[in-house]
Amino acid sequence: MSDQQRIAEDIAQIAVLLRGRLGAGGTTLAGSLRRARHRLPRGLRAPARRLAEAEPLAAHPRLRLTLDAAALGEDARRLRAHLEAVDLADRRRGWWLGMLGALAFNMLALVALLIVVLRWRGLI
Hints:
The protein contains five helices and no strands.
């Protein structure tokens, strides 16, 4: 299999990883990136954009030959390494801890406001 053919497979694999690991919907890599752009590190946004721009060209047999296979392969390798390192359980745990932290802060603020109002009215 040539490098140009491997590019299309790499792009499809990156799109599947984006949907699975970051929860970014979309049928193409460009669609998935629109939904997950803010969840990617800043250093990986440009390689992801380059892969998304190369996706329609990689699907065409003759236009695929115009792509820089080495650079796109390196971009795909970097993105794949990052996405495979994402721990789904840790992301869920972080989301729940953030939600519970916000709830605890709101409860503390409500209690403090209640104490201030009761003191102001002379009931405490």
